[in-house]
Amino acid sequence: MRFWKKWRRAGISADDLKKAEMLEAYTCWLKNEKLSRKQKRLLKEVNNFPELQPLKQLIDFSHYRFEERENVQPPPGAEQRARERVMAEIRGEALETDTASVDGLELQPGYSPQGMGSETTEIMQVDASLPNVDELRKWDTEQSTASPEMLKRYNAIRTLSRLHIRFEQKDDDVYVTDLGSSNTTYVDNTRVETPTLIQDGSTLKCGKVSFKVVDIERS
Amino acid sequence: MKAVQITHTNPLALSHFQQATLSYKQACYVESIQHYLAGLKLGAAQHHYIYADLAKAYEMIGDWDTALACLDIALRLCPESPTALRRKARILDEKACYDTLICLDGFKKPPPRKFLKQLQENTTKFSKQVVNSEFFSLTCHSEINSQTVWNICRLIYRTYSELGETLGCYPVSPVSISIENTNGTAKSQYSLPKWASGCYDGSIRLAYCTAGEPVLSILYALLRHEWVHLLVHHLANGHCPAWLDEGLAQSLARPMFQSEGFELQKAVQTERLLPFTLLSTPFSQLSPKFRKLAYIQSTAIVQFLIQQFGFSKIRTLLSQLSKGTPIETAIEQAFKRSLAEIPLAGTF
Questions:
Q1: B121 & B221 share domain
Q2: Residues A136, B3: C-beta atoms closer than 8 Å
Q3: Which one of A131, B90, B134, B167 counts the least CB within 10 Å of its CB?
Q4: Which of residues 116-155 of B touch A (CB under 8 A)?
C-alpha cells in the first residue's frame, strides 16, 4: 500500500489521492506501524466515506489471509492489477476482470477428463438381434486386455472375508485369531485355529493374500 | 468364460437396450440407466452383460454403490466374466479414492441463515443460484438444494486455501465458477467436449450428470483440477506446457487410480509412451487414443518431479516459465537436470 506516494505526480485528483492515503493509513494502523500525525487525522475520517468500506474489507481480508505468509510470491503483475482495481473502485468504474488473457497470449482452455470409468472402454453394442456367445466372448476378451495384473490382484482380494482376523496383544506378545473366515488363515504355513503367536518375520496368509510381519512395536 | 446362452428376449426390451447404448454414447448417462432399467423390467434379466453395462452407466454418474450391486448380479450370472471383475475392481478403487478426498460427515451442518437469505435474493426466474463471495462468484445453472450449494461453497473455500498454500498463489480477483447438470442435454451445448467434465478458460465451468444432486467428492476433484489451471496460468503467465499444466492439475486434484497405474505400466512395457513434444500439445487436440495416456503420463511425470524436488522447485520452474524461458532451460535452472533426464513415465 506504499505505492500511493508515487502517484502524486501522475495526475490523480486530490480527492482520489486523499482516499488512497486514508486507506494507506488504515493499512499501517492494521499492521501496528507507527502513524504520522497526518495519518492519524486521516484515519479518523475513514468512516465518513461509505464508498471506502468495501476496500477496507479487502484490506482486512488481505491482511488476515496473508499476514504470516511472507514467503508467498504474488503472481507477476499482481501488484499492478491490485492497484488498478483499487483505483477503479475508488473512481466507481466498472471493474473488468482480466483473467482471459495474459500478455496478449490466447488462453488455452484446460479440461478435466471425466473422473470415472474409462473413455476407451466400450459398452456392449446392442443390435437388432441379441449377441450370441461368440460376440459376448469377443466383448469380454477385448475388455480384459487392459490389466491382467489388476484382475489377479482383485481375485486375490476376493478371498478375504469382511471380518477375517483379529490381532490381540497380551503382555508383550501379539496373537492372531481367525474370525471364522471362508478361506482360513495361516501363520508360517500353520493353520490358525486358536489364537496364534506372531513374531517379527512371520508370514501371515489370509486367503490368497500374504503379509510379512516386519516389526512389532510394543507399547 | 461361461457366458449365458440367450434364447429369447422381449423385442421392446431389446429396443430399450439399443436406446440405452445410444444414450450412453451421447454421455446421457441418466437416460441410459432409465432405458436399461425399463428393458430389464420387461425381461432379459439373465443377461450378465446388460448388468455390467448398467453398472458402467451408474459408475459414470458417481453412484458407485448401485454400480457395485449391478456388478454383483452380473457376477452371479457369469462368475468368471473378466469385464464384470475388472469393472468391480476399478469401481472399488475409484470409490476408495474419492472417499479419501472428503469426509461427508463434516458436510451435514445446515447452512447459516445469512447464506440462505443471500441465496434466495440472488435466485432469478431462470432458477439460477448465485453466490458472491470475496474470492469467487458461483453460479449454479441447474437446481441444486441449498445444503449442497453451501457445501460446494465450503469446498471452494477449501480449494482456495489449500491450493493457494501449495502453489503460493491466490487469485487477485473473484473467480467465476459455474456448475451445470448436463443430464438431458448434450455436453456440446455446454461447450464442453464429450470426454471432459470441467474447463478453465478464464472462468471455471464444471459439469455433472446425475438425476439429483451432484456427487460432492467428484465435483471437488474437478474444482481442484480447474483451480490449478487458473493458478498455473497466473504463475507461468500463460507459458506452461500442457504436460506440466495438466500433470499438476491431476496430481493436486485426486490420487491416481490403480487402473491408471496399470495403463501406464502397460504403455511402458509396450514402449508406447508419448514423447514430450506430443505431451506439449493441448490435450484437447489429441486423439482419444492418446489423450487418456497423455493425462496419466503427465500426472506420473509431475508426481515424480514433486517427489524428487518438492513444490518450492515447481514454483521456481513456473516462475522461470513466466519470464518466457523455454521449458528446457527452465527445467535445467530449476532442477539442474535436462528435460531428457526426466523419465517419461515418472516413477513407474
A1: yes
A2: yes
A3: B134
A4: 134
